Amino acid sequence: MNSIQAAAATGPGRPRAAAALRRWVADETWVKRLLTARRWMSRAYFEARYLLPDPWRLATSVYEHRRFQASLDMLAARRYGRALEVGCGEGIFTALLLGRCDHIVALDFSRLAVRRARRRLAGAPGVEVRSLDVRGADPGGVYDLVFCAELFYYMSRREFEEVAARMIRWVAPGGDLCLVHGTSVHDAAPRADGAGAIGEMSARVIHDRFCRAPDLAVIRDRRLPRYRLTLLRRQEAPRG
Ligand SMILES: C[S@@+](CC[C@H](N)C(=O)[O-])C[C@H]1O[C@@H](n2cnc3c(N)ncnc32)[C@H](O)[C@@H]1O
């Protein structure tokens, strides 16, 4: 029984069912998947969101600033040569990440976001903002750090699996992959098969998939009440 069926059930479990229904309705994952259910809708959805600058209030929200700090903390003291940020939006986090890397390729498929990121980061040394849809193209090369926050739950399961497999290959031997995704009701009450319903792309599904990748070792995995942060490291190439 999934959370909706549980919520619709009657009988002694009704208060719990009502609470589950309230949680499910308040959850945003299913809304995101509904609005991006077709491949073309996803880009249109983001262009529409970016009609207003900073749609997620990344520049002003205390919650987002804490998330950014927690993301930087995941990287600990390590300094990176070449980094890739996937889904950089308007470049707000990119500006912070720049302090940890010599060079960053920041990419996003929203033209409006890319234009604003270029403006924000203009003049900053070692940063290149590219317009690219990772569902259809590779950025080229390998990176000492691949950073990706709040991206995958806008993809179908099939798109996710395909991009995830390629993304692992973008990490240089000995390099890191850092993931940050908000949790949802699907993390709290996972379905046994982990698939099917709208909203299937929970942080659990996304991060667990990378944690199972044979080429990656889990360095840190933090599950906070509202989001999960995972740092993985690609094995060094065998010597000789
Ligand atoms: C919710 S925002 C997150 C922005 C930023 N990473 C953060 O954590 O605050 C998701 C970003 O990913 C971008 N994005 C979504 N799907 C993408 C894709 N297939 N290729 C490139 N960028 C994508 C969107 O345009 C948007 O800027």
TrEMBL record:
GO terms under biological process: methylation; oligosaccharide biosynthetic process
Keyword Iron (UniProt): no
SUPFAM superfamilies reported for this sequence: S-adenosyl-L-methionine-dependent methyltransferases
InterPro entries recorded: SAM-dependent_MTases_sf (IPR029063), SAM-MeTfrase_NodS-like (IPR008715)
Alphabetical keyword list: Methyltransferase, S-adenosyl-L-methionine, Transferase
PANTHER family xref list: METHYLTRANSFERASE, UBIQUINONE BIOSYNTHESIS O-METHYLTRANSFERASE, MITOCHONDRIAL
Protein name: Methyltransferase domain-containing protein
